[in-house]
Amino acid sequence: MSEIFNVERVTRLCEFLRRSPTPWHATHAMAERLEQAGFERLEETANWQLSPGQRYYVTRNDSSLIAFQLPKEPLHSMRMLGAHTDSPGLRLKPNATQYAAGWLQLGVQVYGGALLAPWFDRDLGIAGRVHIRHADGQLESVLLNVDRPVAMIPSLAIHLDRDVNAGRSINPQTQMAPVLMQSDTERLEDLLARWLEAEHGLRAVDVVDFELGFYDVQPPSLVGVNQELIASARLDNLLSCFVGLEALLDCDGQQGALLVANDHEEVGSASACGAQGPFLGDVLRRINAQLGRGSEKGSDESLIQLIQSSLMISCDNAHGLHPNFRDKHDEQHGPTLNGGPVIKVNASQRYATNSVTGALFRDICRAADVPVQSFVTRSDMGCGSTIGPITATEVGVPTIDVGLPQWAMHSVRETAGTQDVEHLTRALVGFLNRKVLN
To answer: Given pLDDT bands bounded at 50, 70 and 90, which one contains residue 2?
Structure first.
């Protein structure tokens, strides 16, 4: 085993992944760690009283989070880390109950660009948030995590579809409704009542609304003869959320630092808590209003100065070189798992990296003794995007897109390198501790 493999950190990662089947659970898990480390929770509806040298966090929609530490010295710049809490998956429709051939099924809609085939024949749990009404009329939002196999999407036998291995399209409307139980009378509302009582002891409550989805209950595992790999659901992009949080907690706290974990990246980021929304800008304005530069504190002038003196590292996983599909990569840009963080470049600005931010990140990796790689998609293939260009556009902060290489992106189970967890953490700690951003 390489000495870079950090057993304690990877163990924490596996526990975080296990506890985070939805963006709401991931945000809750991060908030718990921040509070344990002494971060103070802020409410967006309250007046903020910020003090130099202190650490704070705030959530929006219970699915996005911003945590930041303020320097004891005057605030001149922020070292920002960005990631996203959501992952592609199957979300329940509002009127989900349906029956077929004597079985209760639940109708689903596909969230994000999910790879559908791996969802078949998996042990599926259900998780998300549920809004309930108590007997006294009070509304409450509660997290629900049915973390045992309660559903499955069975494949059709090859005997009934001889051409399936030649390539068959999947219809999510007609072919992907999970099977829950043998019944033609049970309803989703009945099941929710049981699960809410089992998990929270709630009785005599009405389910008013919900945002729920299925997930694979198989826990994360370390794979390979030497445990070179970690396999889990939602590595894209909870791996970056975890590493960003680890770096924020491990840094020396001398510089202004901020971690933003947005929801809704997989569906375009256009929401109040997404990267295209005002969440990060709102927080930066409130910080600047109290701790901005000199006599211009709180002005548009000082806010622009703060943003332009800062840097955002957008962390979202990259496509690692697949040993069975090497032709899907540009032959000069095939990042290897456990080969270090990847700088993501696209001439059409699908990634926000430019030579200035790229050079700075390479220098950060050099100082941290961390290997660094580059990714450019093939010129005859389309390119995905991240919160990086959106954040740069909405906020104006200089930004670089990086990520750890992985296989099977957007599958129900993805794979990354265990050594890379330490690689990126060390690089980001070096970035947050860096005194001068040039």
So the answer is: very low
Pairing between β-strand 179-181 and β-strand 139-151 as defined by DSSP bridges: unpaired
Token pair for 295: 């006599």
- CA pair distance 340, 335, nearest whole angstrom: 8
Dig out the tokens for 90 from the structure. 């199957």
CB atoms within 10 A of CB 309: 17
- DSSP code per residue over 345-358: --TTSSS---HHHH
For 215-244, write each residue's pLDDT tens digit.
999 999 999 999 999 999 999 999 999 999
Torsion of CA 29, 33, 35, 39, to 10 degrees: -120
Following CA atoms 157, 159, 160, 166 in sequence, which dihedral angle do they give, to the nearest 10 degrees? 90
Domain boundary assignment for the chain: 7-87+233-433, 89-216
CA torsion angle 64 70 76 77 (round to 10): -30
Element (H, E) at 29: helix 23-36
**Separation CA 232–CA 230 (nearest Å):** 7
CATH topology of domain 7-87+233-433: Aminopeptidase (3.40.630)
Strand partners, 55: 69
CA distances to 23, 102, 288, 294 from 303, in Å: 30, 62, 6, 12
Write down the pLDDT at residue 437.
86
Predicted confidence (pLDDT) at residue 54 exceeds the cutoff of 50? yes
The whole-angstrom separation of Cα 232 and Cα 411 is 10
Could you say which of 2.30.250.10, 3.20.20.140, 1.10.10.60, 2.40.70.10 is the CATH number of the domain covering 89-216? Answer: 2.30.250.10
Is 191:92 a contact under the CB 8 Å cutoff?
Answer: no
**E strands present in 271-310:** none
85, 91, 93, 99 alpha-carbon torsion, rounded to 10°:
-160
d(CA 129, CA 145): 9
Per-residue confidence at 379, pLDDT binned at 50, 70, 90? confident
Contact indicator for 233, 414 with CB cutoff of 8 Å: yes
* β 414-417/405-407 pair status: antiparallel
